Amino acid sequence: MSITQSPYMTMFETFRSELDEHHDRRERIIKISRDVTAQSKKIIFSLQRIRPPIPTALAKPIASDVNSRHETITKLLNEAAVDLTSLSGWRYQRQISPGLQEYVEALTFEHYLTTQTLLTLSEARSKLPNGIMLTEEDYVLGIFDLTGEVMRFAVTGIAMGSLGGFQRSGAKSSGNNQVTGTETGMGTGKKRETVDDLRELRAHLEALDGSTRKVPMGREFGKKMDVMRTCVEKVEGAMYGMIVRGRERPKGWVPELGGGGGGGGAGGGGGQQQEVESY
Question: How far apart are CA 73 and CA 79, in angstroms?
Answer without folding.
Answer: 10
